[in-house]
Amino acid sequence: MSSIFARLKARRLASTFAILASLSAAILIGSYVAHGVHGQEQQNESTDATPLKIPTSSVAPNAFAQIARQVGPAVVNINTRILPKDVAKNKRPNPRSRAVPVPQQPDDDDQGDGQDQAPGGQGNFQDFFNRFFGGQGPDGGDNDGSEHDSLGSGFIVDPKGYIITNNHVVDKADEIYVKLSTDPDTTDLGRKARVIGVDKATDLAVIKIDADKPLPTVKLGNSDGTAVGDWVIAIGSPFDLSQTVTAGIISAKNRTIEKGVGGQFQHFIQTDAAINPGNSGGPLLNMNSEVIGVNTAILTQSAGYQGIGFAMPSNTVVQVYNDLVSPSHKVTRGSIGISFKEGLSGAVGRVYGFKNGVLVNTVTPGGPADKAGLKARDIILSIDGRSIKDGNDLVADIAGRHPGTSARIGYLRDGKQADATVTIGDRDKVFTDQAAVEEEAPAGKGEAAEGKLGISVREITPATAAKLGVGGMVIQSVRPGSFADQQGLEPGLVITQINKRPTGNKAQFDSAVEGLKSGQDVVFEIMNPKRPADGINFVGGTLP
Questions:
Q1: Is 361:340 a contact under the CB 8 Å cutoff?
Q2: Would you list the DSSP string of 125-167?
Q3: Are 154 and 163 in contact (CB under 8 A)?
Q4: How far is CA 186 from the centre of its chain?
Q5: Core-most of 26, 219, 341, 492, by most CB within 10 Å?
Q6: Quick check: is 35 catalytic?
């Protein structure tokens, strides 16, 4: 019996070993198969995949592509360099490297047919580019002794090598280099360029490179023929990425982005074509491959593209270019020597009896208007019989006339129409000698507050009256929220008239104020003793 059990036990063990051997073999085979699928040793023998081929068909080029190919060779990359002071001061200056500067913008919103500060600066216009164009161009700060580089764009308009760009691209640069799209792509900066002339009022510049053969050029278009909604293309070198093409539409026209004198020649084309630092100076093109603007600035909070860019219209560019390549290498604009303020309230027009025209703030002593007999408070209505709409209309007309020519000015004085012949002067020269006379507002005892206006006043001193050329009442205090406060009156300003009634002394002032009634238009004639050269400012509204 025991032998039987032994044989059964041996059979069970043999069966168990056989099962284990079979399982081990299966595991080994599965591992080998898996290794063959996922590993590198075994190759896929499949032959049912179809190889891919590059198609021979092509999409017909659209208008954007055609324009880019046609205009691209004439669009250039501009690199500028400011050298350390000890290097730059030893360089021989180029006698044609700068045009005569355009006068600087004043600090307030007063307008004039000529600026009312001495030449030599760019005013807030340059600050605009520093803020909104990320300091584009070598104008972001003073030369601190280190070497600075900057980048911009431009386009060739003459096969001899004349190039249009922005002034802020080349301003203050010691070295300017231009690279064409056909130039070898090396580490070399490009061809050396020189400045022919600049116009800071429009932020335009003309530079030139030497060429041993005619260079490709762009075709200029008529910016007046453009319309909001038209397709446009911008080409330039944003962030050092040359020959970059972007597209968009004209989103607005005649856009002025800076108030006051600095914006008198800034009537931009607004576009949503992507413009970034480095695009500055490049062309804005219409669908006829014509340049209708020079990309100049962007409105941004991030120093990059946010959908609003500005281009100087080509019709302005042509006029400036022709002046800059002339023997004088400067832009000459006409002036009659007056200043005025834009955006006057309707109350001013109603009190002074005009809807369209320009109310004269100041007349430059010895200037063209002064010699013709025009005075502050005159309202200019027409030029050579053509009605004047507003200050921009006046500036555009006068600035476009050559110095030495004459114009017939129609004006309104004390409700009576008159006219005078004015000889146009050079805008730069008319205001060169006009200096602001500063004087602190004299101190004095306060007066009782005026219930109707919300101010207290006192008579100005004889010395101040002599400086201003007129008597008046100096504002001592302004009650917050009062009528005077709402009109922007401040302590220290002098009221010379109210509704055309003189306020040269306390009795005259009280008489003028006592006659005012609720619902009546009230206009103040204001002068600033600290800046008597600014002349009269007209402010007013409807008395509650």
A1: yes
A2: HHHHHHHHSTT-STTSS---SS-EEEEEEEEEEETTTEEEEEH
A3: yes
A4: 33
A5: 341
A6: no
Cα angle at 369 between 363 and 371, to 5 degrees?
Answer: 110
Return the residue matching tokens 């290097």. Answer: 87
User: Per mean pLDDT, which of 296-305, 330-339, 479-488 is the most reliable?
Assistant: 330-339
Q: Using CA atoms, how far apart are residues 350 and 348, in angstroms rounded to an integer?
A: 5
More confident residue, 377 or 258: 377
Whose structure tokens read 């599965």? 30
Per-residue buried b or exposed e for 518-532, using 16+ beta carbons within 10 Å of the residue's own CB: eeebbbbbbbbbebb
Q: Which residues contact 270 (CB under 8 A, 6 or more apart)?
A: 250, 251, 252, 253, 255, 308, 309, 310
Those residues whose C-beta lies under 8 Å from the C-beta of residue 211, and which sit 6 or more positions away, are 159, 160, 161
HEC assignment per residue over 385-416: CEECCCHHHHHHHHHCCCCCCEEEEEEEECCE
From the candidates 150, 280, 314, 339, which is the catalytic residue? 280
pTM above 0.90, yes or no: no
Residues contacting residue 13 through CB under 8 Å, at least 6 positions apart: none
Indicate which residue of 174, 199, 203, 272 is catalytic: 203
Of 323, 322, 239, 314, nearest in space to 283 by CA:
314
- Helix, strand or coil for residue 473? strand
Burial class of residue 255 (count of CB atoms within 10 Å of its CB; 0-12, 13-18, 19+):
middle
Give CA–CA dist 333/114, Å, rounded. 8
Alpha-carbon distances of 304 from 8, 386, 541, rounded to whole Å: 90, 44, 41
Phi/psi at 30 (5° precision): -60, -40
pLDDT in tens, 46-66: 678 888 888 887 767 788 989
Supply the DSSP string of 415-444, one letter for each residue.
TEEEEEEEE-EEHHHHTTT--PPP-PPPP-
* Residue 168 appears among annotated catalytic residues: yes
**pLDDT number for residue 422:** 95
Helix, strand, coil shares, percent, the chain, to 5: 25, 30, 45
CA distance 19 to 36: 26
Residue where the block lists tokens 């026209």: 253
188 catalytic per annotation: no
Question: CA-based diameter of the chain, in Å?
Answer: 151
Nearby residues of 118 by Cβ (< 8 Å), 6 or more positions away: 103, 104, 431, 432, 434, 435
> φ, ψ for residue 352 (rounded to 5)?
-95, 0
Catalytic-role residue among 168, 223, 289, 428: 168
For residue 223, the Cα-to-chain-centroid distance in whole angstroms is 18
Does residue 402 surpass a pLDDT of 50? Answer: yes
